Every structure is written in C-alpha cells, then in structure tokens.
Amino acid sequence: MLDIALPKGRLGDQVYELFSRAGYDCRSIYEDSRKLVFQNEEKQIRYFLVKPSDVDIYVEHGAADVGVVGKDVLLESDSDVYELLDLGLGRCKMAVAARDDYQEDRDRVLRVATKFTKTAKSYYESVNREIEIIKLHGSIELAPLLRLSDVIVDIVETGRTLEENHLKVIQEIMPVSARLIANKSSYRFKHQAVNQMQIKLKEELDGDIIL
Ligand SMILES: Nc1ncnc2c1ncn2[C@@H]1O[C@H](COP(=O)(O)OP(=O)(O)OP(=O)(O)O)[C@@H](O)[C@H]1O
Ligand SMILES: O=P(O)(O)OC[C@H]1O[C@H](OP(=O)(O)OP(=O)(O)O)[C@H](O)[C@@H]1O
Question: Which residues, by range, are in coiled-coil regions (predicted)?
C-alpha cells in the first residue's frame, strides 16, 4: 500500500485531477463528506487530505510515503525529504510588495511582515539589508496599509489582492509551484511504486506541454 498526502484547498483540485489523469484515480475525494482518508483498492493506494503546510511533516515522518506540497512550504521547513518532481501546478511567485507610494529608505531597518519568515530572512541577507520580521499568519496585505510594516513578503498569483489594496510588487524573489516529495526510506523500500508514480506523473505533464 502506498500512502499519499495530498493538500486540501486551492491546490487540491488541480492535484487530484493530475493524479487521476496519470492513472491514480482519486475521484472519490470529490464525495461531499468530511472523510480525510480515501482508498483506491485496485491500485493499492491510500490518500490523506492534509493541510497544505503540513504535507511535508506527514512525509518526513513516514506517515505518508509521498506527498504534494508548494515550494514555498518546502523552503520554510527543515524537512528531510526527497523532492522528486516539479508538477507545475499552483504556479505563483514569492515577492516583496509595498504601498503604491512606498519610498525606500536604506538608513532605516526595514519592517517586513510575512508568514514566510525563513524565505524573507534569506532573501534580505542575500541583498545585505537589515530587517525586522513581523510574523503574521494571513491577510498579510493589511500590514503595510496599517503601517504595521514597510513591506510584505508574500505569494502573488493574479496580483488582484495587491491591486485591490493599493499595493505593488517591488521585487520578485522566486517562482513557486507544487512539488512531488517522498519519504527517504519509502523511496528506498517502496522504490518501484514510488518510481512508477513519478514516471506516470511526468508522462502526463510532458503530454500537457506537447498539447
Ligand atoms: N494565490 C495563492 N495564495 C496562496 N498559495 C497559493 C496561491 N496560488 C498558488 N498557491 C500555492 O498553493 C499552496 C496552498 O495554498 P493554500 O492557500 O491552499 O494554503 P494555505 O492557506 O497557504 O495553507 P495553510 O492553510 O496550511 O496555511 C501554497 O503553498 C502555494 O504553493
Ligand atoms: O495574487 P492573488 O491571486 O490575489 O493571490 C495572492 C493572495 O492569495 C494568498 O492569500 P490567501 O487567499 O491564501 O489568504 P491568506 O494568506 O490571507 O489567509 C496570498 O497570501 C495573497 O494574499
């Protein structure tokens, strides 16, 4: 039996769809229920529906053999897992944003609101800029509006949230997309099943590109 941790929420639908197309049918996940575990007897696969930011924890500890998680989450965690494949889903970018009227003042310590504290610290270290981190858990765009921070480091997808709150991107940090990850022992001891899944997903993605 192969155990797979899949993210609930906005990434979920795209991921279930890809897995189904690749022959790992998990359509029963669409049942209107509060169940968190789904089984495909024929394929000997069990799916767990997990909070997106917890996927790597299930995989690292071996509660799941493989999982799908955003690169943004992987960069924040210290999880010791294998990153097998870029699934190209949930594409967005990590960026620095500020008020439309923001003026950079290099003489002041920059106040940065974010839930991605590790990513923000390493980005500002790389550009040699002293910062103070203000850790938030959501609605990050509020921080510069209320002058709680000078800038934010957050995910930008369509740019709509920034626009509707009179903010703008001042620096793109990196592109983000969903990754297939594997537990290190599972990769060894369930190699055939994990490898087969990686190949099937890759074939499906390559097909998408050709079409
Ligand atoms: N507009 C977006 N906002 C946030 N994440 C996005 C967006 N577009 C794509 N993603 C990707 O989807 C993943 C899951 O995002 P989602 O918003 O469902 O979870 P979350 O609310 O950030 O997670 P959690 O509930 O665990 O804090 C992110 O880790 C990111 O890789
Ligand atoms: O560029 P856009 O398409 O507008 O998407 C970006 C927004 O989506 C995410 O927020 P989310 O909806 O997950 O809410 P939260 O982080 O504030 O909880 C992210 O933190 C941005 O606020």
Answer: none
What residue numbers bound the domain in which 199 lies?
2-91+176-208
Residue 140 alpha carbon, nearest atom of ligand 2: 17
Same domain, 147 and 79: no
Cα–Cα distance measured from residue 35 to residue 104, given in angstroms and rounded to the nearest whole number: 49
12 C-beta closer than 6 A to ligand 1: no
In this prediction, does ipTM exceed 0.90? yes
Residue with tokens 């509660």: 63
Q: Are 54 and 40 in contact (CB under 8 A)?
A: no
- CATH number, domain at 159? 3.40.190.10
Question: How many Cβ atoms sit within 10 Å of the Cβ of residue 24?
Answer: 20
Structurally, the chain folds into a number of domains equal to 2
Tokens representing residue 194 in the block = 């994990």
Residue 135's pLDDT is 98
Q: What confidence tens digit (pLDDT) does each residue in 42-70 have?
A: 889 999 999 999 999 999 999 999 999 99
72 lines ligand 2 (CB under 6 A): no
